[in-house]
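Key result, reporting period 2: structure in, sequence out.
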């Protein structure tokens, strides 16, 4: 079983309007609500790929109940810790005239020390049932960056594999706890090292530095150029074919889901990278964020190129 942690989930509201006009009333042509947050994308993709997933984090109020009702994938079990504050919404308004999106992200209610303590109790209850733990996204207000390290330490103590996909201070602090894998994109890796990183050699060096710090698998995702994986088995690049994409949001999350499934199935390093690149590229071929078509995955698995560097 895979535990996916989403501490700051949201109801993602998507509107399509003919034209986005400030200070005017607009009527939405298309409305959709999704149980969102980066970890929820991971949960959905891993569950769609056939793995049992337990989604954990904080949910609150009527919005929290509504969020749970939006989870529509079998073998995805919600085990969120309930809090007082209402679960937030994030709004994406898509302007059909320009094909551009405008987003409004609610910050969400802060969680208390007591909420965190209850979450840890819940987390420890589910941990023995899990093989892999994924931790994704930002921290709610009131949670210190070191909290992710705490989760990684608890999981490692029970011999579970951990994948951390975050940014900034939360990523930096989490690395200190030596998760099994991190999956920064180029922007996140530059933010972390504040260095001029541009060539593949630079990325390999950074990956090896992180290996030396105790992160066994460093995967740097490069959008349409695929991903670079630096690990004890060597350095590998995984490249998807050139695609006509529909929606690339959540590709990174789908990649994390791909690696979580691969850990669960004990794939070799090459097969893990192939599966993760294929499933993340398949996500870009569907409109729904954090989703894929079985047929796309099947085709992409044949087309992804894995190379040892
Ligand atoms: N345009 C694309 N064509 C094919 N594959 C893609 C494309 N964009 C992303 N991918 C696949 O998804 C993986 C992750 O994408 P990316 O590097 O954009 O992650 P990210 O920035 O963390 O995304 P997010 O945080 O929005 O989920 C890539 O390594 C690649 O395999
Ligand atoms: Mg990402």
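The corresponding designed sequence is given below.
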């Amino acid at each position: 079983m895979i535990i996916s942690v989403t501490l700051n989930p949201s109801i993602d509201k998507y509107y399509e309007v003919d034209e986005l006009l400030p200070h005017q009333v607009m009527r939405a042509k298309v409305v959709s609500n999704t149980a969102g947050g980066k970890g929820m994308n991971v949960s959905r993709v891993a569950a769609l790929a056939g793995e049992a997933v337990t989604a954990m984090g904080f949910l609150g109020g009527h919005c929290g109940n509504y969020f749970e009702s939006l989870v529509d994938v079998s073998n995805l079990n919600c085990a969120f810790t309930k809090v007082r504050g209402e679960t937030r919404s994030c709004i994406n308004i898509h302007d059909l005239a320009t094909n551009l999106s405008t987003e409004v992200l609610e910050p969400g209610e802060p969680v208390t020390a007591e909420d965190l303590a209850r979450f840890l109790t819940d987390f420890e209850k589910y941990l023995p049932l899990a093989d892999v733990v994924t931790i994704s996204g930002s921290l709610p207000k009131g949670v210190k960056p070191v909290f992710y390290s705490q989760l990684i330490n608890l999981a490692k103590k029970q011999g579970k594999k951990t994948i951390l996909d975050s940014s900034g201070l939360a990523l930096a602090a989490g690395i200190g706890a030596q998760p099994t894998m991190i999956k920064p994109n180029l922007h996140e890796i530059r933010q972390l090292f504040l260095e001029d990183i541009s060539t593949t050699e630079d990325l390999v060096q950074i990956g090896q530095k992180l290996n030396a710090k105790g992160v066994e698998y460093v995967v740097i995702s490069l959008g349409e150029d695929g991903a670079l994986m630096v690990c004890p088995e060597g350095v590998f690049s995984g490249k998807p074919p050139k695609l006509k994409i529909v929606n690339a949001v959540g590709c990174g999350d789908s990649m994390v889901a791909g690696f979580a499934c691969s850990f669960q199935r004990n794939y070799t390093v090459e097969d893990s990278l192939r599966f993760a690149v294929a499933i993340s590229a398949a996500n870009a071929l569907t409109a729904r964020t954090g989703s894929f078509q079985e047929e796309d995955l099947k085709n992409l698995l044949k087309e992804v190129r894995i190379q040892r560097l």
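The mean pLDDT is 96. The pocket of adenosine-5'-triphosphate (ligand 1) is lined by residues 185, 221-224, 226-227, 240, 243, 245, 248-253, 255, 277, 280-281, 284 (CB under 6 Å). This case is discussed further under Risks and Mitigation.
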